[in-house]
């Protein structure tokens, strides 16, 4: 008994010592919390009757003297603190990693806002920090708002998404006040390049759990000369929980894409049996309309076109076929009137016989009928998922759509500038992708290689994207041989290899490839890279090279096989070290490459495929033309 009592006392003393080592609490208005490796540090201070924070990384100032509040305008008092340490792992249903480490130190701060109790949770990770408030009972005469300042150094530069347009930046902090006159809005995920050769991203996660809050918005306060973000609480509920406000910290910009903090702070999986959720690739009809095959067949909205898609999908292990708009003519609650252009029932039966699952588009502008009845109806049609269009940036509706689609065992892919529910793929893994970017040829225009790099390094930080890369008949698209192709002829600047690489670089649970089956069959040796790629089932993902507006190279592992995709705006060579391979093992490597004759403007479809052997430590010189790409598939010999 004495030994047990001694052990208990020793454990308590160790816990106290640990708390003191993490958090300097000699005065309750001066607090400090470090990350597990000690390199990220947060200080909190009750200053000028407000709560201020400072953020440091590698002994450098990152954010200084910045207010954080849930009841701005009220005096705040720190009552007590509690420190927690978490070091565990969890397994996502699908994602960039098969196992994710969740290692952080957390400071729980009890606050008093002039008689109103609240709690602030601060988590420090080795790769960033996160903040969340909880209030058990909000005052009837007060409007809570998650307010946060970002006192960034004036030498910092910002990049912001721009909806379906090209992300803009760099914008110096000193010039942020001019954005209002340019009618440019700062959106999450903001990317910050500071003067200490560090990259930050400012965003939020777990909005799906924070009922009553809208999407984060950023503004520049000319009075304080600070960037600020604010979420108003609009709800009749008495209690509130905010989203997690996150600051990611990396030394390389590409590592922001594989940073797991947004997933770690998100609520765990809410779907009890998620075995029906299967990430994968999908063919898609919308961009193929008007394409004429060599046998004279022209694609459109009809059974024969869809049979061709399904046949190719079945023959090439493509899991899904997505049928887009115009398959119906009228909508009523729980019922949709089919177009006479096709017999959807026959298409569904044909797909089932071939082992191909169907995804079906829905346009909410068709009267907005039957949102609650829509999902059970789609399930009754035999669909595996829904592509939801024109829902608008409506947080409550989008949250309900994700939940209701899960209840009907449906995947959901959001179209047209959706709510960036960062972290939702952990909480509701049926939320498989979203078009939080300019998708390939969207609005009938083509994006440039530079725009692709920007969206890949900025928009993709918030989660899986549906960008519709993978055009192989580039010449046909540029010649206007598609009904839905770009209005401006010859505006698509890319190469066939770059298109293949993009399908790997952009992480998604649903890789939607937009070209005709015949276009892929004509380049079957190049299509092999997409065909063999196990979408969303990655064990490991790494960004090997990254530079804004210039190049991006990504490697993903499934089992013992590696897939590597690279693109280059200006053209050049990237040295890719294969030091991630296993020792004493020979590997077969298939190269998919631009050639000396490839030109993204005049000869975009020239490519070569060759096979060799490699081993750990070899260096591959990935050579690309301007706007071109390079792919590798590596597997044990």
UniProtKB/TrEMBL annotation:
InterPro entries: Aldolase_TIM, GH, GH-type_carb-bd, GH97_C, GH97_catalytic, GH97_N, Glyco_hydro_b, Glycosyl_hydrolase_97. The keyword Phosphoprotein does not apply. Residues 33-268 form the Glycosyl-hydrolase 97 N-terminal domain. Its cofactor is Ca(2+). Transmembrane segments: none annotated. Monomer. One of its GO terms (molecular function) is carbohydrate binding. Residues 1-28 form the signal peptide. Residues 288-435 form the Glycosyl-hydrolase 97 catalytic domain. It holds the Pfam family GH97_C. This is Alpha-glucosidase. PANTHER family: GLUCAN 1,4-ALPHA-GLUCOSIDASE SUSB-RELATED (PTHR35803). Keywords: Calcium, Glycosidase, Hydrolase, Signal. Residues 537-634 form the Glycosyl-hydrolase 97 C-terminal oligomerisation domain.
């Amino acid at each position: 008994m004495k030994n047990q009592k001694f052990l208990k006392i020793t454990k308590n003393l160790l816990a106290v010592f640990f708390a003191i080592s993490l958090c300097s609490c000699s005065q309750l208005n001066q607090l400090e919390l470090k990350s597990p490796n000690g390199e990220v540090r947060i200080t909190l201070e009750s200053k000028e009757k407000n709560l201020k924070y400072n953020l440091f990384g590698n002994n450098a100032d990152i954010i200084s003297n910045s207010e954080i509040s849930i009841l701005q305008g009220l005096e705040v008092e720190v009552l007590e603190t509690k420190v927690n340490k978490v070091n565990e792992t969890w397994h996502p249903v699908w994602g960039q990693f098969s196992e994710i480490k969740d290692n952080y130190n957390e400071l729980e701060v009890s606050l008093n806002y002039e008689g109103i109790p609240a709690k602030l949770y601060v988590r420090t990770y080795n790769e960033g920090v996160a903040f969340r408030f909880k209030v058990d009972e909000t005052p009837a005469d007060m409007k809570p708002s998650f307010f946060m300042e970002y006192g960034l150094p004036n030498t910092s530069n910002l990049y912001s998404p721009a909806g379906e347009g090209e992300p803009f930046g760099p914008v110096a902090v000193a010039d942020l006040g001019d954005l209002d006159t340019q009618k440019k809005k700062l959106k999450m995920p903001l990317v910050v390049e500071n003067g200490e050769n560090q990259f930050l991203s400012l965003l939020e996660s777990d909005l799906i759990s924070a009922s009553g809050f809208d999407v984060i918005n950023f503004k520049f306060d000319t009075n304080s000369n600070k960037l600020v973000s604010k979420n108003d609480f609009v709800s009749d509920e008495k209690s509130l929980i905010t989203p997690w406000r996150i600051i990611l910290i990396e030394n390389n910009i590409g590592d922001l894409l594989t940073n797991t903090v947004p997933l770690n702070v998100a609520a765990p999986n809410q779907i009890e049996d998620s075995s029906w959720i299967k990430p994968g690739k999908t063919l898609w009809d919308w961009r193929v309309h008007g394409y004429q095959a060599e046998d004279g067949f022209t694609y459109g909205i009809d059974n024969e076109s869809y049979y061709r898609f399904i046949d190719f999908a079945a023959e090439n292990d493509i899991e899904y076929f997505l049928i887009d708009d115009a398959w119906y003519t009228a909508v009523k609650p729980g019922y949709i009137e089919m177009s006479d252009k096709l017999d959807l029932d026959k298409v569904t039966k044909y797909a089932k016989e071939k082992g191909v699952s169907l995804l079906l588009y829905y346009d909410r502008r068709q009267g907005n009928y039957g949102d609650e009845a829509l999902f059970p109806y789609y399930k009754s049609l035999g669909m595996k998922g829904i592509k939801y269009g024109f829902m608008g940036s409506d947080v409550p509706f989008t949250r309900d759509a994700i939940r209701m689609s899960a209840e009907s065992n449906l995947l959901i892919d959001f179209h047209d500038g959706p709510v960036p529910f960062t972290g939702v793929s952990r909480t509701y893994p049926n939320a498989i992708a979203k078009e939080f970017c300019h998708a390939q040829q969207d609005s009938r225009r083509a994006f440039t290689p530079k725009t692709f790099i920007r969206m890949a390094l900025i928009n993709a930080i918030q989660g899986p994207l549906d960008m519709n890369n993978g055009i192989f008949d580039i010449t046909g698209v540029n010649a206007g041989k598609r009904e839905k192709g770009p209005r401006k002829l010859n505006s698509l600047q890319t190469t066939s290899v770059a298109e293949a690489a993009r399908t790997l670089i952009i992480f998604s649970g649903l890789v939607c490839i937009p070209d005709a089956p015949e276009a892929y069959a004509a380049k079957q040796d190049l299509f092999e890279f997409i065909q063999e790629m196990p979408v969303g089932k990655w064990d490991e993902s790494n960004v090997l090279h990254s530079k804004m507006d210039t190049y991006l190279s990504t490697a993903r592992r499934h089992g013992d096989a590696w897939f590597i995709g690279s693109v280059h705006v200006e053209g050049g060579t990237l040295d890719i070290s294969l030091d991630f391979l296993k020792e004493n093992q020979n590997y077969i490597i298939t190269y998919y490459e631009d050639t000396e004759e490839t030109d993204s403007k005049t000869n975009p479809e020239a490519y070569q495929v060759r096979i060799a052997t490699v081993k750990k430590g070899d260096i591959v010189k990935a050579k690309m033309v301007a706007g071109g790409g390079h792919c590798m598939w590596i597997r044990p010999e």
